[in-house]
């Protein structure tokens, strides 16, 4: 089952990609997906599918999955896309690999100048 590739809706394109991955044998149960995500309970994986999780940028991101019969399936590539969207960079990373330190305010110098 494939959706037309000329579909202008990105959600439909994402579903078509997910279904193609499942058809290729990459489908994972929610329990298996939880183990891929680091020993997460299947109910948490289901919550990621239905309600999503808030990204660093404040957007709600949902794990791509398809219901096949009475079971939900997702794929490793869908998990990778989900994790990538959740960890989208908000701040630049310094060369040390840590987030850049916030700029310090000159409030102390201004207070000293005022004699406080």
Which helices and strands occur, and which strands form pairs?
Elements: H1 10-26, E1 27-28, H2 30-36, H3 42-50, E2 53-54, E3 60-61, E4 66-68, E5 71-75, H4 76-86, H5 107-113
Antiparallel strand pairs: 1-5, 2-3, 4-5
Describe this structure in words.
The protein has 116 residues and is of the alpha+beta class. The chain has a domain at 10-90. The protein has 5 helices and 5 strands. The protein has helices at residues 10-26, 30-36, 42-50, 76-86, 107-113, and strands at residues 27-28, 53-54, 60-61, 66-68, 71-75. The strands form 2 sheets. The chain has a 3-stranded antiparallel beta sheet. α2 crosses α3. The longest helix has 17 residues, at 10-26. The N and C termini lie far apart (73 Å). Residues 1-5 have low confidence and may be disordered.
Placed side by side, the strands forming the largest sheet appear as: 1-5-4
User: Which consecutive residue ranges, at least 5 long each, have pLDDT under 50?
Assistant: 1-5
Described by the principal axes of the CA atoms, the overall outline is elongated
Radius of gyration: 21 Å
Sheet with the most strands, sense and barrel status: 3 strands, antiparallel
Distance between the termini: 73 Å
- Could you tell me the mean pLDDT? 80
Strand content: 5-15%
Number of strands: 5
Helix count, per DSSP?
Answer: 5
Category by helix and strand content = alpha+beta
Helix content: 40-55%
Question: What's the helix-strand series?
Answer: HEHHEEEEHH
Can you give keywords for this protein?
116 residues; alpha+beta; two-stranded antiparallel sheet; elongated
């Amino acid at each position: 089952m494939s959706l037309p590739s000329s579909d202008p809706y990105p959600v439909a394109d994402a579903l078509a990609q997910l279904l193609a991955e499942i058809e290729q044998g990459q489908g994972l149960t929610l329990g298996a997906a939880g183990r891929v995500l680091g020993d997460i309970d299947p109910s948490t994986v289901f919550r990621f599918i239905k309600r999503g999780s808030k990204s660093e940028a404040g957007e709600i991101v949902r794990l791509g999955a398809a219901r096949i019969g009475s079971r939900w399936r997702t794929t490793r590539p869908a998990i990778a896309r989900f994790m990538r969207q959740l960890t989208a960079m908000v701040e630049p990373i310094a060369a040390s690999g840590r987030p850049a330190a916030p700029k310090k305010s000159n409030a102390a110098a201004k207070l000293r100048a005022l004699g406080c």
